[in-house]
Amino acid sequence: MSIVAEAPTPSFPHRHLLGIEGLKRDEILSLLDLSEEAAAQSRRVDKKSSDLRGRTLINLFFEASTRTQSSFELAGKRLGADVMNMSIPTSSIKKGETLIDTAVTLNAMRPDLLVVRHHAAGAVELLSQKVDCSVINAGDGSHEHPTQALLDALTIRRHKERFEGLTVAICGDIMHSRVARSNILSLNTLGARVRVVAPSTLLGEDVDRLGVEAFTSMHNGLKDADVVMMLRLQRERMASSLIPSQREYFHFYGLDAEKLANAREDAIVMHPGPMNRGVEIDALIADSPRSVIREQVEMGVAVRMAVLQALARHLPNE
Amino acid sequence: MTVMDTEHEPEAASRPHRKPLALVNARLIDPASGLDAFGGLLVANGTIADLGMHITEGSIKGAESLDCGGRTVAPGLIDMMVFCGEPGHEHRETLATASRAAAAGGVTTICCMPNTDPVIDDVALVDFVRRRARDTALVHVHPMAAMTRELKGEDMAELGLLQDAGAIAFTNGKLSVANAKLMRNVLSYAKDYGALIVHHPEDANLAGDGVINEGEVATRLGLLGIPTEAETMMLDRDIRLVELTGGRYHAAQISCRASLDVIRSAKARGLPVTCGVSINHLTLNENDIGPYRTFFKMIPPLRSENDRQAMIEGVASGDIDVIVSAHDPRGAEGKRRPFAEANDGAVGLETMLGAGLRLFHNGEITLHRLLNALSARPAELLGLAGGRLVKGAPADLVLIDLEMPWTVAREDLRSKSKNTPFDEARFEGRALVTFVAGHPVYHYG
């Protein structure tokens, strides 16, 4: 059972965090509140607490990652957990069966928390069905990346103090982005107005059915936006002719001062990293005072600490 | 410039006419509105300043006047398919020589195809062609850029940047894009820029090594045939992709009855689909090839008489939107060869109007439909201001004598290459004077 219905306490009643889908507004907000405390903890000289002492956290990454994996590793260590990183190169895992075998093997090592990233959409949920511990989705294919959406929401709230009435423009490779999907779900749940901006080839069919307004022009899409969220462009998109070239992409969709001028004067600029300067974002914008990209990284650790704590409350204590 | 018209300077096209010019005693035809009236037309500053009954000899003070003797004044022709050769094949044709041929045929705007050497798939080349045309051409020249890099059908070209640089539309030249996923992406991407995709529909595998329409003629001549299905199947696929993406699609040329049916059904469904036909496929058929005459070898191949009749019906009904010359200059080195080894293509800029008027004189297509497909409709598809006889429109005009008999002599063609299938053809009607931006760029005789 993954969802405990109508439980008054604790405020985050789920055993796993597989996605933003299914989370209620109050649940997201309680995670953000908990994250604020974690952020404060991370700014102390002694950053370590004992909330997760004795717990084992395994980072299981089937897809290469630097920042998400180290962010989870730090989060676990600051809470006093024992953290182990397992990186499994994609080439050695090709079939669903092998994924489940891996899960069964790991389960026998009795971890308490399992952080999983996998290149296939739905793989993390599949794995969660085969283990006894709590599972956190650190990105499954183009499906979801819930902790990214939470850290983005936290960063937005710290600057804008609310979600209602905000206009958030998510720009770039919407079709292939798990960051976009999780953010659309979370920001819609929190009451913001979400726009997506991309060439038609990267928007995804029927994307408007996800509760967003779709634009193919940055000028129109950024008009009066409070938050501009850029997405990373993968080189594969050129190879598969979804867009012709990096220079054309930058010309029409790269965030520069001229395009940003369409947004509100106090609009903040976000990026999940790692950035391609000169492809989706101009270096001057990335380093400008309106950019909150470094703060996003800091909030990433805080949000992951909060998620680990919230899930650990459901772990058996005896 | 190596070749320069003695009477006319290229810069003339961009220079405003010094004095207003009144074309008087004319039959004015604006095919888009159906206007067909006797009167006069006043040209000033490169545009049509006024037109109507009140413009007569001496009615406009300070204007030069030209008595048209009751002959027809119509919008200059707009040709959506001209293979030029510059850059890379200047021995066949340059922008200058193509533009002189155009002017002599009443054509005031040409779209040049990107299958040059190098291929026009880069903003610098679009810029080169435009500047070169500005400096050397007598008529308006708009480059169509490649929709895939190097026309290889593998990677999408920079459609957005190319359009900003002045590419009027996108095409893969005489090559079809076989990869359906790429075609889908191109249509979908082009839609964001409102760009028109002009595609040559032909399944290269099915066409194979064919050199002539498949059927009795091919069998008798012992030549490999190309079935009409090679065209119709690709057209069918493209239209499904238009349905999926909503991109604007123009079939560069169709050549057979089955393709016309496909276009009709797409239009009936309200899809943004249009098509063209070459003057050759309207006026010639496979039997004209006779004893392996390579000047009649082209892509798509000349089809059966039934198919030709279908093309006429299509223009008459408006289902075929535009008529193109498919002007494709080829030298003797490419044409004086065994049929199967000879180059495809025929020149057509100077003969398109005369050949088209055959259909009018035969009562097969009305004059308005004919001129509409040669001027107003292409202007509409390309978003050009020309193609109209209305106040404020550019004074790109042609004075046509509808009845004048003349005979085509290939050696007299202004095109650098003389590969015309109409050598010694007798035509009735031709351009007498061609105006670009109000300036005469061609006088007959």
Brief digest:
Chain A is an alpha/beta fold and 318 residues long. Chain A is built from 13 helices and nine strands. Helix content of chain B is 29%, strand content 23%.
Structure description:
The complex is a heterodimer of chains A (318) and B (445). Chain A is of the alpha/beta class. Chain A contains 13 helices and nine strands. Chain A has a five-stranded parallel β-sheet with strand order 7-6-5-8-9. In chain A, helix 4 links the parallel strand 3 and strand 4. Chain B has helices at residues 95-104, 123-136, 159-165, 180-192, 204-207, 216-221, 229-245, 257-268, 279-283, 305-317, 332-335, 352-361, 367-382; strands at residues 21-30, 35-44, 47-52, 64-67, 72-75, 77-82, 107-112, 140-143, 145-146, 170-171, 196-199, 212-213, 225-226, 248-251, 273-278, 322-324, 397-407, 426-436, 439-443. The two termini of chain B are 24 Å apart. The model of chain B is unreliable at 1-7 (pLDDT under 50). The relative contact order of chain B is 0.16. Chain B is built from 13 helices and 19 strands. In chain B, the strands form four sheets. In chain B, strands 1, 2, 3, 4, 5, 17, 18 and 19 form an eight-stranded mixed β-sheet that branches. Chain B has a six-stranded parallel β-sheet with strand order 9-10-11-14-15-16. The interface between A and B is medium-sized, with 16 and 18 residues.
